[in-house]
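Input.
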Amino acid sequence: MPEIVLNAEVGRTLGSRSARRLRAEGKIPGVVYGHGTDPVPVAVVGRDLRVALSGESGSNTLLSLAAGDQTFLTLAREMQRHPVRGTVIHVDFQIVRRDEIIAADVPITLVGEALEVHHGDGLVDQQLFTLPVRARPSDIPTVVELDITGLTIGSALRVADLQLASGVTTDLEDDVAIVTGQPPRVQALETEGAEGEAGEGSEAQTEIDTSGAAGEG
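Output.
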């Protein structure tokens, strides 16, 4: 994927007071690190960072960070957010190389329509929303699609059912469920109720048998 150029100021003063001043100016303090490079404190314009990460790749967007007389190929990692407003208040830029394998989390998108589940008034229950992948920076997919057309009530689609592009792998086990076809809610409740009644009946029978045995003795 092509990288986006992002300008960064270098030489910012460290400390919470300086960080507050930068944020008041609409800037976000950060640090560039990785591949044996000494950490470089930087600051970027908040709006520019939001625009750069607003595309399909999100936080996996390759950023060509122009920092003074140096340019770093980076990914935005460890973005700290304000606990109330949710705005980014600090960002770590990880230096990457085009030929190295790196880890990233990619969203999983369901495509197609699970007709059998819908016709049975069931529920398509997505259990895994992001997939941890390993790939070269330029090969990281924007999304991983999973076709749920063949999903039925009581069945599941798993990691093994994903079609990953060449050069993209995941460390998850093949049997990890991504989406399942759940029965109608009413049916599920009835099943749970029946199981509960069966359990109570067994307990009652056990009490009768026990008391009967005691009486015979």
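The mean pLDDT is 86.
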